[in-house]
Structure formats: C-alpha cells, structure tokens
Amino acid sequence: MMASRESSQTPGPELGVTLRRLRRSRGLAQRDLLQPLHLGSHSAIVAYEAGRRIPPVAVISGYERLFGLAPGSLTRLREQALADRAAAEAHSLQATRETTSIGSSAVPRQLPPTTAHFTGRTAELAQIDRLLRDRETSTPVVISAVSGMGGIGKTALAVHWAHQARDNFPDGELYLDLQGFHPSGRPVTPENAISRFLTSLGVPYHRIPVELGERSALFRTLMADRRMLLLLDNARDAEQVRPLLPAAPSCRVLITSRSRLSGLAVREGAQRIALETLELRDAVQLLRRAIGPRAGAQPGGIAALAQLCGLYPLALRIAADHLAADGDISITRAVTQLTEASSRLGILTVPDDDASTVRTVFTWSYQALPTPARRLFRLLSVPGGPDIALPACAALAGMGAAECAGLLGVLCEAYLAEESAPGRYRVHDLLRLFAAECAAAEDCAADRDQAALRLAQWYLRSAAAARIALDSYLPPLPLPAAELAVPPMSFADEAAALAWCDVERANLTAAALSARDNGWYEIGWKLPTALFAFFDRCKHYGDWIATHQAAAESARLAGDREAEGKVLCNLGSAYRPMQRFDEAVSHYHRALELFREVGWRQGEAKVLGNLAGTYHDAGQNDHGVTTGLAALALFRELDDSYGEALCLSNLGNAYADLGQHDSALASQNLALELFRALGDRRGAERPRGRADPAGTPAGGGAADHNGRARLRRPRGSA
C-alpha cells in the first residue's frame, strides 16, 4: 500500500529527528519499516525523517506500536510539526500578499441581515453579552451554543446580537450556515467549512492544504492576531464544529444548533443558551409590530392568535404577515381558522415534532397563495442543494425568469422562502418538508420528475459552458437534447466560470447524484465530467470523488464502457493529488482495461501517461519510466505531438530523480522543441529539469481524458 503525503512544506525538525533516532536505536534500515508501517516506498520514510512530510495519524500510531511507545507519545511532536507548517504557510502568504497583492485585504463582514421586527429575548441577549462581549482578552475563547428546535429564532437571535456587537470585532465577522439538519442529509463538512473561511481570509485556492488537521492549523494561525467573530449557524454536532474553532483569545465564536452540543460543553467549556418559545408579552408585541395599526383594535384577538401560534417565532411571523398583507381577513376570523386547523393536526404545541408544530400555520399561509405561487412552492422541495439561483429556479419551474422572480417575491413576502443573497433563494428546512408533503398530495410523480430533469439539464448545460471557459483546450461535451425555458449560464471569462462553479458547487453535486438516482444516466456521467476542470483546479475532493463515483455507476448502468473509462480516469486524477496512490493506480488500470476493450487508443495513451506520473509521484521512478515509455510510443504511433511532449517532460523528471541526467536533459529538450513547434507557450515555459534536493520534481504533466493532456502544476501546489 502506498503512503499518503500530508505536507510538501518543511515542518519543524523535531518529529523527524525523533523518528530517525527511534529507527537507528533498533539498528533498522529505512526499508525495514515498510511492512510494519504498511508503506509502499521507503521514500516516505526518507521524507518523514527529513522533515519534508508530516506522517498521517495512522503512521504515527504504527511507529508507537513498533517501538513500544505509549499511545499518543508522538502526538505532541506531530501537532507541533503541524503548527510549524501552518506558521510557515501563514508567513509565506503574508509575504506573497505584500509583494504580489494576492489575497483579499478587505475586512470580511459576512453577517446576514438582521431580522425585521426582532422582539424580546432580552435575557438571552444579556447572557450572550456576558459570555462573549465583556470577557477579558486574556481569557480563552468562549463558545456560546444557542440551541432550540427549528424556527425557534436561534439564527435571528445570534445575528441580531452580532450586529449590535460588531464594533467589538474590527477585523470582521465570518459566517457560515453549516446545514446540520438540512433535508438532503449532507451537512457542510469541516474540510469545506475551513476552506471557505481560509478563502475569506485571503488564502488562494491552491494554497489551502488537503488534510483537515493542516487546514485547521493554518486557520488558527491566521486568526491568532485578529479580533473577529465567528458565527457558525445550524451546526449538527460537536465533531462538525470542533475543527473550526480558533484558539485566539481575541476571537469569539457563536454557534446555533438544534442539538445541545454536549461534547463542546464537556471538552471546550461551551456555554449553552437553550431557546424556548417567546414570552406572551413579546409574542403579542411581535404581532402588533408586524400587523400594524389594526392590531390595536383587537387586543384580545392578538393574544389568542399568539397562543394558537404556540408563541413560536416562525409561526408568529407567518401569521402576522398574512394578516398585514390581507386587510379583508379579520383577526377574529384568522383565530377561528387557525383553531379549526390545529384541532386536526394537534394544534401548535407538540414539543417533539417540529413539522407538526408549524404545519397548521404553513397550511394557512400556503392556501392564501395564488395558484402559480403554490406550484412554485411545491417545486422548491425538489432540488437537493441548500439554495437556488433565479435562473435555475426558472428552469426547474419551466417558466421565464421574470415570471419566476415575481412568484419568488410572493413566496418571500409570505415567509415561505427567503432571498438569502441577491438573486438566490432558500427555503427553511421545515418549510421544505411541508412543501414536499404538499407536492406528494397535489402533484403526480411524473410532474415532479420532469421538473427535476429540467433542472438537471440546465445545470449540465451551464457546467459544460463553465468547463470550456475554465480550459479552452477541452473540446465541447456532446449534450443530450433538452427544451429549457431559460438559457443556461454563459461566462465572459475564466474568473466568472470559477465563481459560478464555486457558488453552485453544492447544487451541482446534488444534481449529479440525483441524476444517477433517477436513472438519467447520460446526465449522471456527463455533469461530473463537465465539472472536471473546476475540481482539478479547486480540488474539493469530497465532492469530486462523490460525483465521479456516481458518474462511474451511471456510465456502467448505461452500458457505455468508454464513458465509464473516462470517468474512472478522472476519478484516478482526484486520488492522485491526495497522495492516495493505490486508489489512483487502481482506477487508472480499470480505465486502461476499458479503453483497450473498446479500442480507444487515444484514451489508452492518456491513461498510461497518468499512470507514469502517478508512479513518479509515489517515488516508484522505475515503474514511471517503463510506463512513460509505453505512453510515449503510443502517442508517437497516434501522431499526437502534444501527448508526446508531455510524456517526454515527465520522463525527464523521472530520469532526473534516478540520477540519469543525460537522459533527463535529452527528454526535456525534445519536449521543449515540440511545445515550441505546437505554439504552446505554457508548455514551453513550464519549469523542467532534474529534481530539487528535496526530491520534488520542478514540473511535469498528466493527462485527462477529455481532449488534450492536462498540465500538472509542480508538486506541492493545487
């Protein structure tokens, strides 16, 4: 089994020195450690002992077992190495920022807008103040976990307090909805959460580490000298939150969750604020403010309405807005209607069933909608992502963008949807469940499936356009026929395509998985394929692997062997930069079998090129040269000068690592001639030559399956 590499930057030397002393104390050679530590190449041992790489936790545990050390004996040294690497990376980022203006210098101010007519919660606001605002800067970070059922007002309270306290945080606020209880069942992972925070702090994509521990260390380092607020909304559990916590005493963290987050209370000393329903006087005040002057004429009716809404903030706001918007409905009539509905569904006071608690009010507001808005509300239960952009929503509904925008406005006014950002809309988790119930009761399955198909087709066409904008060398991806009410996205440049893919990543991932699940196999493998250029640049390994695994299954179920090979090739290219070499090689070999089976010689050559590069990355240069020569011969047979040039460049690197410098120079010179003849400036200007003293090649290439071979950046970058 080949070793995983966690870092290509030099951490502190103490860990490496200790590992070398342990080995020498037993009189062992580096190769003697391969089997006990389950490593495939002694180059990993060399890198660990030299301090160029940080061993994974599993390898550290293996050292402890092999040398009879107490469990955890080497953990402190590993953590120090991670901290040293993070400090070096932060220093490098700062130096780069100062010399090249890379990275954002703007203070992040990411708080959502405060809730209109915020009422009550005086005691809770004061408690948060005591816990977060008034602490001395020398004390450790204080975590306040605001918990309660969905719609109870956790986010409203946290955001309201944060806006009041923002002057205390001159370095800004970071906000993220962790989607801990999203209906999709896919909360934001700690890896993705930290990646977003690092990007907000000015770290370029290619400088973000792969491993979670390294990302956390870099995040803590960058936060160390800042006075910032971190608002983590809708957390699922302590394990999702723990890697996101800064260690700086000048930073504060505010967390909302439906869970009690007991683990944070025990280990990190989190202070919990459990929200309950509003006091009656606060509920009445909220209704009066939202309804307007009419509320003063019927004080008894307002109090009864508040009670029937269970003093539940979300239900109160929906009821108030309905009355404020429709002057023909009296408060007395509203109370009567609500009473009748709640008698069927258990009223609004079921403590353990969030859906039952608010279904009555949702039904009341839903039934007041015009028919087209009802249909759109039901359709919003179909997408699997966290939110939806206006054009995508129009494609889902099969209507023009202007008509869709008008109906979304109606839903937002009724508190059945929210414009979370300009042109982007989301539906509360409980409302989404309610919308799904309505859809199941009122729409046939075929209509819902057709809406989901329209959305998947729109995402596919938009992703295909982004693919070309991100890499103009890639050929267009043939797409299945589709009739869309709105055109797909188009992109003026690479930056626009990258930004769209980043914003829509969760939705694109959900659409790819949905296509597989619904049997739309052509979309199922082509949508992830269209995203390859984005994933190859920005990594996001979890989504990359999940979408391509589903794509491989779609291609297999469709009986398209060539497509399956292409997807497996791209999947291997996801595992390769993660240093999961065994899995990369396995997927490349399977792709090679499929390409040979269908007779696609070009694909066979590209996979051989990828295999050669992977063997080189894994320190198996003899295999790399043998496989690279096979790829070179096939590219020459196919008269593919570009593939030939990349193979020669990779072979040059492998020869250099083997100490065969004459062969290395000859290969690189031939590659340079070919790149110049092809007019490929990027290829001709790529650094090449023998390996540096750390054993890291200065350049190289790999091939993807879609058209041209893919340039591989120097090892250690994205």
Quickly describe the structure:
The chain is mainly alpha-helical. Helix content is 58%, strand content 6%.
Gyration radius, rounded: 29 Å
Q: Helical element count? A: 32
Number of strands: 10
Main pleated sheet: 5 strands, parallel
Under the CATH scheme, the architecture of the largest domain is Alpha Horseshoe
CATH homologous superfamily identity of the largest domain:
Tetratricopeptide repeat domain
Ranges with pLDDT <50 over ≥5 residues? 1-11, 99-104, 341-353, 687-718
Structural class: mainly alpha
**CATH class membership of the largest domain:** Mainly Alpha
Percentage of residues in strands: 5-15%
Distance between the termini: 24 Å
The helix content, as a percent range, equals 55-70%
Averaging pLDDT over every residue, what do you get? 82
Strand order of the largest sheet: 2-3-4-1-5
